[in-house]
Amino acid sequence: MKLKILLYLVLAFVFAVSGCVKSGSVTPPQDTLAVETPETIPDDSETETKPETDDNGDVLITETDDSGNVITQIIYTASTNITEKYIYEYDENGNLIHEYNYSADGNFADEFKAGNYENANGFGEIYYDIPSDHYINMDEAFSVTVEELAPLYAKAEQLWVTYGVTVLIADKVSDYTDGAELCFEYDQISACLDLIESCLSCYPKDFFRDFDADVCIQLVGSGSASGLYMSGYERRLIQIDVNCYTPDDEYDNGYFFCYTLHHETAHMISETLMKRAEQSQVPLTEELWNSYNPEGFSYVYGYDDEKEIEIYDSGSNYEYFVYSYGCSTPDEDRSIVFGEAMTYYQGYESSGFTEYVKAKLMYYSDCIKAGFKSDSWDDIAPWEHILNK
Predict the structure, then answer these.
(1) Does 306 map to a domain?
(2) 255-275 and 330-345 helices cross at what angle (nearest 10)?
(3) Same domain, 308 and 371
(4) CA-based nearest residue to 350, from 375, 323, 325
(5) Is residue 267 domain-shared with residue 345, that is, in the same domain?
């Protein structure tokens, strides 16, 4: 059996260690590699593929000939979605004469499975000329990872059944990740799913089924904002970095993760209320919202820490905001107020709720009740409990 490999790799690889990355799990690739492997393996050699799992949970797929010589080995690092491929070349006597390797991000595995070899590396281009009987079955690597995470996929599915929210984890995360890494860390995902459950349970029954599109929460690793909200035609997407919560930190009680989720939910609520304003008896408009600010006040309408602090510290403006970031835009102001109100409902401490801030929340709450199906809600909505503080 003949093996020809033409492999060209221009790889500028910067590997950042994060909460989802196991130190020492990636072998640095060669800077430049262009080789053609001699025809050293007999035509009649039979190969077999053996998936294994090492102590770190990494999946190894090894292809050998009938003499036991390793032809190709792929290592799929489940915790980081990094794939390393090693190509070993032996002479006719079974002596190792060459060893080549490269590393790639999770895009490699997806493209490899799809047969798009020229797109198999997000950091460079890789070209293959490999007989079809030498292709490694990446599905086997993924099946092991999926099997290990099966309880977490089931937990995420249950959140959909109970609250009508799609929760995406690990390799189920959508294409939009804003530069974030995928996370396959079992304990980290599990802890975050528990916090998501605790947050969603605070809202009125079927609240998330009352939006004009499917609501989705996806968990990613580092590389992106702590939280962000994106809307599309069929989906309202909240993305959260799992590192917003560190379960092994005795001082992290989950406040920041929960606040982030409620904050991004408020962005989604505001967008929905703006679309429903014309049909609402209590419409949400920027003009009405700004009427609860000091006379002559103007938002930065952008993100500039220095300007936000300057405005916040001007006169008595600080009494109208939870903190300076609220001076950036009206939508951020609402999201901060709502996020703090919801975390207070969950039992976390909250400060900055002056009478002026409470007035904003009362108006926002009236808009929510008018814009959503609230007939069956409790007399006091979850976010209104802080008004009695």
Answers:
(1) yes
(2) 130
(3) yes
(4) 323
(5) no
Alpha carbon of residue 240 to chain centroid: 5
CA distances from 170 to 58, 125, 183, 192, 365 (A): 15, 25, 5, 12, 35
Q: What DSSP designation does 21 have?
A: -
Task: For residue 156, give the nearest of 192, 126, 104 by alpha carbon.
Answer: 192
Q: Judge if 346 and 253 occupy the same domain.
A: no
For each successive 10 residues of the chain (389 residues), what is the average pLDDT?
28 28 26 30 42 59 69 58 56 61 50 46 33 42 63 94 94 78 86 98 97 94 87 87 92 96 97 93 95 96 96 95 96 98 95 94 98 96 95
Is the residue at 251 inside a domain?
Answer: yes
Q: Does residue 176 share a domain with residue 104?
A: no
Q: What's the total number of domains in the chain?
A: 3
pTM, full prediction: 0.68
Same domain, 106 and 15: yes
Structural domain range at position 343:
281-389
Q: Residue 245 burial (CB < 10 Å; 0-12/13-18/19+)?
A: buried
Non-local CB neighbours of 288 within 8 Å, separated by 6+ positions: 363
* Cα angle 183-187-193, degrees, rounded to a multiple of 5: 80
Contact of 132 with 117, CB cutoff 8 Å: no
Residue 141 within any structural domain of the chain: no
